[in-house]
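Practice record 12: protein with protoporphyrin IX containing FE.
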Amino acid sequence: LNMLLLDAVLNSLVVSVLIGLVTFCMLLYQYWWKFPHPCYPPGVRGVPVLGALPFFGKFAHKTILQWSREKYGKIMSVRMGPNDAVVLNDYDTIIEAFVKQHLVFSSRPSIRMIRELSGGFGLGFCPGHKKFFEVRHFTSKVLRGFGMGRIEMEIRVSDVAQDLVQVFESLNGKATNLRMTIGATVCNVISSVVFGKTYDINDENMKEIVQCIFNTLSFYSFGDKKNSKYVMILTYFYAMRHIPPFKKARKMFLSNITKQLGFGQKEIDEHKKNLDENSPGDFIDAFLIEMKKHSPTDSWFHEKQLLLSVNALFIAGTETTTSTILWAMIVLLNYPNLQYILHKELMTETVNPSVKHGDNLPLLQAFIQELYRCITIAPLGLQRTNTEDVEIGGHFIPKNTVILPNIYAVHNDPVIWTEPSKFDIYRHIDKDGKFIHSKKVIPFGVGARVCLGKKLAQLEVFIFLANIIKKFEIIPDPETNEIPPIHDGLSGAGFFPYPFKVIVKSR
Ligand code: HEM
């Protein structure tokens, strides 16, 4: 009888626990996942723990845009792991937040793995306080050519472009994957500005640093590197860094950045030894001189910040610009007639292409603007955060929310662009054949944290493409006859082309 009684008690206990668990899960589902969080705009909450992350598919920016169009509207929330992010899905809303309320939206959320390495210093992932903005303002001036007077920025870029032309010529029409060559060239522009020197494009040290930079961003992409998804997941769930596959991925990620930092530190040490205060020749010189005007405790003008600024400029400036040039080549492979008309326009200029003659090259300008629009390199920008509670478009957004501008959505808004998926340079040409600049093409973001290298990147893209199109014909690899698609690529920290080979044939 005792046994029977014990059995019955145990059974009812198990049943009660089960009922309790089911009720708890239903309540959790009902209150946490089914209903929108009262503090955020309506949106997708996905599943417990991961939120909407498993539902993004290959291109998060496209999936979010679809959700926004079908159900939630321009301002929506998306649960990303442990955080609710707010995504702004049209031009007016992005301007309302990032430009009209620029002070509130001038910060970035802190990513623990990066903060541990950088101590919070650097350029891209820093909070938007006064000391950071002093350094940002200074860096922006230097990148526009101020404070290191000797060589004009366009001359630096043109010199490097001539090296690229020579390397292309030396390929003798052989089908080649040009990612490393273009990466090294783009890196050389930054090296010229930051270190005051350039490397041979085939120099092994140069190749190593470019590979390191490519690795850093591919860790943040879905699909390229084996460890990339682990690093992405660590961004949201850093506690998992102790579990073996995450531990290994984190170690690789950190050792990759440490190698880059070593490269920068070596240059800083050299510059300190040879500094001529009356004649700064590059960013490091200019920063070392500026450091003397500030106290390292009251400002961010100190050596750690210098090292992390140098690193940020190389990382942010290399893959983005390289991919833009590679995408341009893919577009030209897809539209051979464009090559013909752009080449013809460039041949009307007798001298080497220069931005000063930009007005004479409306088709090239339209091509570049359409490239920025149609192939959005940073589709979801770089995360921002708001430093105060704020209201946007009638929605309350609590302080410290992760904010994402859907730049892809702006570039594909059918209200602004007819047939947005079509690559059509003539949408940027007026009836008199003049180029129409569009403020709604925003590949570099907008507002207080707009891309720091915007001017330099625009200069590079113009000079590099003008030289390539003027001097070479771009032909598919005859072995595969493969023409890479313009709307498919690697997605993650950016939108990058898959590897492809191409022939650059001298004209
Ligand atoms: C075509 C090339 C490039 C594209 C499409 C691009 C795009 C972007 C975007 C979308 C952002 C985020 C802006 C925002 O939050 O509103 C950004 C930030 C940044 N970019 Fe670029 N970029 C390019 C080239 C460069 C170059 C050449 C450099 C430097 C030499 C650079 C340095 C930076 C830095 C330092 C930031 C962080 C700024 C901050 O947080 O205050 N970028 N870029």
